[in-house]
Structure formats: C-alpha cells, structure tokens
C-alpha cells in the first residue's frame, strides 16, 4: 500500500535560516505529491504540489521537487520567517486510483524564533 | 465565508454514547472525504463520496462508524457506542471534481471519556 515517511520533529530555527523537511514515499502507480500546512488554530491548507516526476512545486517561497529515483519530495525554503511556524504534512494521492484520497505523513512542527 | 464548515467544533462523549458529526462542503463540490487524525499523527482516510454515492468506505475502522450524504451536499459521520480509541480530530474535505484540490474544514475534536 501507499505510505509517506517524514523526518522526526519538532524543528526549531532562527528567522532567516534555511529549512529542509525530508519526505519519502512508497506508492504503487503514479502518485501526485503534496505538502499541506496547518497554522495554529487553522485548518489544513495546500501549500504546494507536483503531479509527475521532476516537477517542482512552489508557493510562498517554499519549494519541493518530485524525485522518482529517490522516491522523495523534500520541502525547502531559503529564509524562514516567524510566520512560517506551523505543522507541515507531506501527502500523496494515487491519481490512477478509484479516488484521490490522500495518504499523509505524521507531520512535523516547525517553530521559527525571531 | 465559503469554505468547508464542520460542527460541532468540539464534542465530549461518555463511552458508549452515539455521536453525529456534520460537514458542510463548499457549494457545488462533488467529492467529499472524511479523515481521522489521532493526536500527533497525520490524517487517515475514512470514506469518500461522489455526490450522494459512497464509493469508498475502506478506511472506516469498524461497523460502529457510518457516514451518509443523502442529498449530495451536507454529510454526517456517525459513531455508535463510542470508545476511548475513537478520540481524535475528524476532518472533512471537499473538492470540485474527483482529482481537484481538496479543501479542508477546521475539524471536530472528539473526546471520549
């Protein structure tokens, strides 16, 4: 079956530091890959996505590249801000499946210090 | 707002009670999903509707869990004879069509004592 593995957290960084959050996946078929973010007190929001190998998703300064050879979709940002403090979830869906249900990783909490 | 709404936001139940959780999807969205999120974990798929048809209920953990969407809009997740292990946040998501972006509601936090 499908699964997503995220690096263990939490992660604490100083403002303007470089961020990498690792995500690897196992899937049958040809999944689409997603990063979702949950800010304090809010619901899950789509941050970015990639639908095929070598695609790069980007949004709000965050980027992630779909690497089929390493089955990875690591999230990066060059300079984090305090406002980026949130919980980040990596997820996949099998676009060739009967429906597009999402399989999520455990999530990682990011705290950014001023 | 025009987002996905869920009610109640918080529910405390005594073990053995029945509960009903409501989801109002974005108007016109065909697809509706329910997920369960245990503390410290990512959301896990429960069930999926396309309009009023429940096409996948493979994630429902037991026959105590039941979901419906009778008119293809509002959905209700019902849990009978709640157990402590049912304590979690229940998330609803909707999308315009099957493979479009899923928009999530704020969730209902269920605590079973």
Summarize the structure.
Chain A has 114 residues and is an all-beta fold. Chain A has strands at residues 3-6, 11-14, 19-21, 23-26, 31-38, 45-50, 56-59, 62-65, 75-77, 86-94, 102-104, 108-113.
Characterize the structure shown.
The complex is a heterodimer of chains A (114) and B (113). With 114 residues, chain A is mainly beta. Helix content of chain A is 0%, strand content 51%. Chain A has strands at residues 3-6, 11-14, 19-21, 23-26, 31-38, 45-50, 56-59, 62-65, 75-77, 86-94, 102-104, 108-113. Chain B has strands spanning 5-7, 10-13, 19-24, 31-37, 44-50, 53-56, 65-68, 75-79, 88-95, 103-104, 108-112. In chain B, a hairpin with a 6-residue loop joins strand 7 and strand 8 (75-79).
* Shape, per Cα inertia axes of chain A: globular
Q: Outline the low-pLDDT stretches of chain B.
A: none
Largest interface summary: A-B, 21 and 27 residues
What's the Cα radius of gyration of chain A?
14 Å
Mean pLDDT, all residues of chain A: 93
Summarize the amount of helix of chain A as a percent range.
Answer: under 10%
Distinctive features:
heterodimer, A: 114 residues, mainly beta, six-stranded mixed sheet, four-stranded antiparallel sheet, 12 strands, B: 113 residues, seven-stranded mixed sheet
Task: Spell out the blueprint of helices and strands.
The complex is a heterodimer of chains A (114) and B (113).
Chain A: E1 3-6, E2 11-14, E3 19-21, E4 23-26, E5 31-38, E6 45-50, E7 56-59, E8 62-65, E9 75-77, E10 86-94, E11 102-104, E12 108-113
Parallel strand pairs in A: 2-12
Antiparallel strand pairs in A: 1-4, 3-9, 5-6, 5-10, 7-8, 8-9, 10-11, 10-12
Chain B: E1 5-7, E2 10-13, E3 19-24, E4 31-37, E5 44-50, E6 53-56, E7 65-68, E8 75-79, E9 88-95, E10 103-104, E11 108-112
Parallel strand pairs in B: 2-11
Antiparallel strand pairs in B: 1-3, 3-8, 4-5, 4-9, 5-6, 7-8, 9-10, 9-11
